[in-house]
Amino acid sequence: MYSTWANSYICFVHKKKFPMSQEAKRYTITAALPYTNGPVHIGHLAGVYIPSDIYARFLRSNEKDVIFVCGSDEHGVPITISAKKEGVTPQQVVDKYHKIIGDSFKELGISFDIYHRTSDAVHHETASEFFKHLHQEGLFVEKTSAQYYDEKENEFLADRYITGTCPHCNHEEAYGDQCEKCGTSLSATDLINPKSALSGNKPVLKETKHWFLPLDKYEAWLKEWILEGHKSDWKSNVYGQCKSWLDQGLQPRAVTRDLDWGIPVPAEGGEGKVLYVWFDAPIGYISATKQWAKDHQKDWEPYWKSDDTKLVHFIGKDNIVFHCVIFPSMLKAHGDYILPENVPANEFLNLEGDKISTSKNWAVWLHEYLEDFPDMQDVIRYVLCATAPETKDNDFTWKDFQTRNNSELVGIYGNFINRVVVLTNKYYEGVVPERGQLTDADKEVLTELKAFPAKIAKSIETYRFREALTEMMNLARLGNKYLADEEPWKLVKTDATRTQTVMNIALQIAANLSIVSEPFLPFTAEKLKKMLGLDVSLWEKAGADDLMQAGAQIEKAALLFRKIEDAEIESQWAKLEATKLANQTVEAQKPNVSFDDFTAMDIRVGTITAAEKVKKTKKLLKLTIDTGIDIRTVVSGIAAYYAPEAIVGEQVSVLVNLAPRTIKGIESQGMVLMAEDKDGTLRFVKPSESTSNGSGIA
Predict the structure, then answer these.
(1) Residue 571, phi then psi, degrees to nearest 5
(2) What does the DSSP 8-state code read for residue 27?
(3) Alpha carbon 610 to chain centroid distance?
């Protein structure tokens, strides 16, 4: 019976496919709910919010019926922990970060139709009703199980608050639900040497009763729906992670937990328990839609229950399993809801070569960026789209940020627009000139212009936003090349009529840029439209060669982008360096040694008499040292901190009775003692005043 049901449903799903966006009657776009125990950073933006905003803006420009929803994820243990640390209530914590996050999104131009929150009454009602429906249908499994409990904190532990060694890859900081290094799904009891993230103590197992969603019962259906139904249209990174999960086999997953912050379990025996945050959070998309519909006197149900609606989830790498396996299983179990057509998740964005870490403050926070770079929202949107980790992890660097701004936004896009507007004002007092007879070069440029909107659209519709951005910038490149080839600043001196044609065509390219760049650079597009006196926004108008009518008046030129100076980048580097230093801790004391062990070490004062780099190495110096008892060679890894010529004559401390060893073909006879500073810099351990070589250190 189960197999028959699954197969018939799969046939329906295949029939419902939307290979081209135009085939859907309406669109429900969700962006992952940011967790409100802190602000959002560039990793979140690159992974979720910028691509989803590009997609939503593009669909609106095509006059599609779109709802773009998001909101704050406000339940779960991390909120309660933050509240304890700050000495406030959980509600105060979420109120604080809900405002910071919401305001930041708005200032960046993320065009949500609604930014909701899961602490709202509408969400509590919606999630409770969802649970009750599944409970009444007998779709949960109730069982008593042993769960990790922190005896010091007197709390049951969420899986994310248990860390230990991954049994698959031996990563020592795996979480109780997933190893973020190898991506393997875990149970807390799978971890080797588990410890509580609350107290650091080893947790104990304690029995408690909970409700479970039997994911194993949906495994066969999921395999058909995902592995067969979406093999050709889901991104490889998404499909691969889903396949890995399904190949390992699914297990029932608890939908409730022991906690006093969240949505109370609406069932007998649910006292002192709340809905697990992973269960309630995605329902937040539905409750947000309900609130939006109420605010706009609309019916919310078609956006979640009609077969002609296309549902798309934008999420990050760490949420793939929840949106591709777990939430669809919840929707399917309920029976009334449509399933996601696509889940175009991105991978992780690193920062200056290191993984972004909110706990270590190793991040570029959105609200801080907006303060440091006022009126430069489109720059970070552009750079994060250009470097988006679409199929593999990528790296954000401040130097690349500066280069892309100065070379591409200023040097290509801004340069083209500035030249067009300045020349139009200079030659024609800002009046769009008449177009005369076209040359072959003109016709070729107009043909290329016509093709750009379709190319950009195809890339956006298939979630290849980096590719789409490149094509958008290629249109600006086309404009620059056309001006460079035709040289109207020279042509105006010899052929006024021909110059008018060239400038008319250049203005048409500029006008088209204002339309096709709007999903990516909304603030720039708006400025450009105002500068050109253009009120055309619809995508279907893009590609036309008559957007700018002869005789129309344009405004004076205004710079769309400014250069970013080295000092601004150095300031950001300084911030990161300060963070790196703050994160460094003094190494713990090593185990005690006996006095006899210490006295066995023969440490002498010596003077470096010669120094040179060891060939084919970056770190090693070959030192000649007068130890007072002999002249010997010592190889030391200090080349990154000292120039050879600068340390000749320096007195140092040398462990002279260390057994010799050969390093890069050189016999090293001892060790120069070094102190490692907080920033990793090595410094000589040496006497404060000149001391005779050979003097013992006691």
Answers:
(1) -65, -40
(2) E
(3) 50
**Residue written as token pair 């779960």:** 76
Reported as a single tens digit per residue, the pLDDT across 557-595 is 999 999 999 999 999 999 999 988 887 765 556 677 777
| Close Cβ partners of 242 (under 8 Å, ≥ 6 residues apart) | 226, 227, 234, 320, 321, 324, 325
Q: Provide the CA 511 distance to its chain's centre, in angstroms.
A: 32
E strand or H helix at 682 = strand 682-684
**Cβ distance 212 to 143 under 8 Å?**
yes
Decide if 2-140+214-346 and 595-684 have a common fold.
no
Beta bridge partners of 174: 164
624-636 per-position pLDDT tens digit? 999 999 999 999 9
Q: Using the 8-state DSSP alphabet, how is residue 437 labeled?
A: P
Note the pLDDT of residue 589: 63
Q: What is the 3-state secondary structure (H, E, C) of 172-216?
A: CCEECCECCCCCCECCHHHCEEEEECCCCCCCEEEEEEEEEECHH
Beta bridge partners, 205, equal 148
pLDDT per position as a tens digit, 195-253? 998 888 999 998 899 999 999 999 999 999 999 999 999 999 999 999 999 999 999 99
Task: Provide the percentage of residues in the chain whose pLDDT is more than 90.
Answer: 77
Task: Give the relative orientation of helices 277-295 and 121-136 as an angle to the nearest 10 degrees.
Answer: 120
Per-residue pLDDT tens for 397-424?
A: 999 999 999 999 999 999 999 999 999 9
Residues 6+ apart with CB under 8 A from 278: 253, 322, 326
Q: What top-level class would CATH report for the domain 595-684?
A: mainly beta
What is 2-140+214-346's CATH number? 3.40.50.620
Residue 264's beta-bridge partner residues? 274
pLDDT band at 641 (very low <50, low <70, confident <90, very high): confident
Torsion of CA 195, 199, 203, 204, to 10 degrees: 170
Cα separation values, 632 from 141, 378, 600, 660, 666, Å: 74, 61, 20, 11, 12
At which residue do the structure tokens 């205004």 appear?
A: 558
Count, in order, helices (H) and strands (E) of the chain: 24, 25
Q: Which of 97, 123, 114 is nearest to 35 (CA)?
A: 97
Residues 217, 683: Cα–Cα separation, whole Å: 62
Summarize pLDDT for 27-39 with one digit per residue, the tens: 999 999 999 999 9
Structure tokens at 448: 């290329």
DSSP states of 330-382 as a string? HHHHHSS----SB---B-PEEETTEE-BTTTTBS-BHHHHHHHSTT-HHHHHH
Rounded CA separation 75/70 (Å): 15
Q: How far apart are CA 508 and CA 482, in angstroms?
A: 12
Alpha-carbon distance of 545 to 547, in angstroms, equals 6
pLDDT band at 17 (very low <50, low <70, confident <90, very high): low
Which pTM does this prediction carry?
0.80
436-468 confidence digits (pLDDT tens): 999 999 999 999 999 999 999 999 999 999 999
Domain assignments of the chain as residue spans, ordered by start = 2-140+214-346, 398-541, 595-684
Residue 10's pLDDT is what? 34
601 CB-near residues (< 8 Å, 6+ apart): 655, 657
Q: Tell me what pLDDT residue 586 has.
A: 56
CATH of 398-541, one of 3.40.50.300, 1.10.730.10, 1.10.8.60, 2.60.40.4070: 1.10.730.10
The CB density around residue 474, as the number of other CB atoms within 10 Å, is 16
pLDDT band of 21, cuts 50, 70, 90: very low
